[in-house]
Specification:
- By secondary structure, the protein is mostly beta strands.
- It contains two helices and eleven strands, in the order E-E-H-E-E-E-E-E-H-E-E-E-E.
- It has one domain.
- Helices cover about 10% and strands about 35% of the residues.
- Strand 6 (about 70) and strand 7 form a beta hairpin.
- It is elongated, with a radius of gyration of 18 Å.
- The termini are far apart.
């Protein structure tokens, strides 16, 4: 009797269309979907609501003392060197965490008091927190 084989098709990693913000010890990282919501800016301003614990990111003009360089990532998002921001506001950045993000009046927001995903050093999700 001949086996009735099926060909296995390896799943290809899809591009996550959910906008996210990751805060790690090294940087704040916006994925491709979040970056596209902001219009792929070269510079951004970082905002923080101390009461609600919401981080905000919005496009900024070069030359403003409040702007940070948005460095593109290989995956189509960008990263921002955030050390002064997290130190000023006492935002915990270790271990790295990822939050869903949404656009509100031109500001990309992430609720640090909400559910997040812990991220391992290799960038892979570890657990939900």
């Amino acid at each position: 009797m001949t086996p009735n084989f099926e060909v296995f098709h390896r799943p290809t990693p899809g591009i996550d269309s959910t906008p996210t913000v990751t805060i790690s010890p090294a940087a704040m990282i916006l994925n491709k979907a979040a970056t596209e919501l902001l219009g792929r800016p070269d510079r951004v301003e970082l905002l923080y609501d101390r009461v609600r614990r919401v981080v905000g990111v919005r496009p900024a003009m070069e030359g403003r003392g409040t702007s940070f360089k948005a460095t593109p990532t290989a995956s189509g998002g960008f990263r921002v060197a955030h050390r002064s921001f997290v130190n000023h506001y006492g935002v915990q950045c270790a271990p790295a965490r990822r939050w869903p993000a949404w656009l509100d009046g031109g500001v990309l927001c992430a609720d640090l008091a909400g559910d997040c995903t812990l991220i391992a050093r290799n960038g892979m999700p570890v657990s939900r927190g």
